[in-house]
Amino acid sequence: MQQTTHTVLLIAGSPEPSSADLIRKLSQDAQCIIAVDRGANALIRAGVVPDLFVGDADTISAEARAWIEDKRVPAKLFSPEKDYTDLDLACKAAAAYGQDNHVRVQLVVSCATGGKPDHALCVYGVMAHYAQLCPTLVEDDFICKVLSDTGTASWTLTEDAVGKNFSAVALTPHTVLSEKGFAWEVEQLELPVLLDRGISNRVQTADACISCAQGVVAAFLHTKP
């Protein structure tokens, strides 16, 4: 029997969050919304009430914290003296949601990559670690699907993507991928970790597809010029 899939939306704590319009759009398709510390600030601006708050509460505003309490949002609070980022802890909470509700989790993350380059780099590491949760990172200017042989293995694009820039970056050793329907096509190509072999391709056909046979790859579609 096939498991039901639930979308779990994590609104992360980037100091440069994505737009309120994007947050509202993403929330419409989510069965569970998790505010990741300062992500609560972005949610209050968007008028979207989360189902859970996760973090050490060191960057959430006083206004957003009072709002979370007023809305009686359940919270998983942690000490600031911890070994993991709030995003990692939120991913653990998303996995627990799937186990508790006997559903397959499809993770969507937003407001995660702006402002701090060290944190932004770690976002992709965390997404690779939780590749089995089929993560998709969505910001105002791009979509990044994390493809793997343990989660989502392929991504078929649509007509709206034709002509747009596309990149693929390996996040783990021995990552093997194929790309069809792009300006430069490859078949079973092994990409070196974090190097530029898969950068700056272009979508050529309405059914262009990237697939990951082994390892983990971050596949980027740039939605704006």
TrEMBL record:
Domain of life per record: Bacteria
EC number: 2.7.6.2
One Pfam entry name: TPK_catalytic
Native organism: Atopobium minutum 10063974
Alphabetized UniProt keyword annotations: ATP-binding, Kinase, Nucleotide-binding, Transferase
Protein name according to UniProt: Thiamine diphosphokinase
Domain Thiamin pyrophosphokinase catalytic: 24-130
Gene3D superfamilies in alphabetical order: Thiamin pyrophosphokinase, catalytic domain (3.40.50.10240)
GO terms of molecular function: ATP binding; kinase activity; thiamine binding; thiamine diphosphokinase activity
Cited InterPro entries: Thi_PPkinase, TPK, TPK_catalytic, TPK_catalytic_sf
GO process annotations (BP): thiamine diphosphate biosynthetic process; thiamine metabolic process
The keyword Transferase appears for this protein: yes
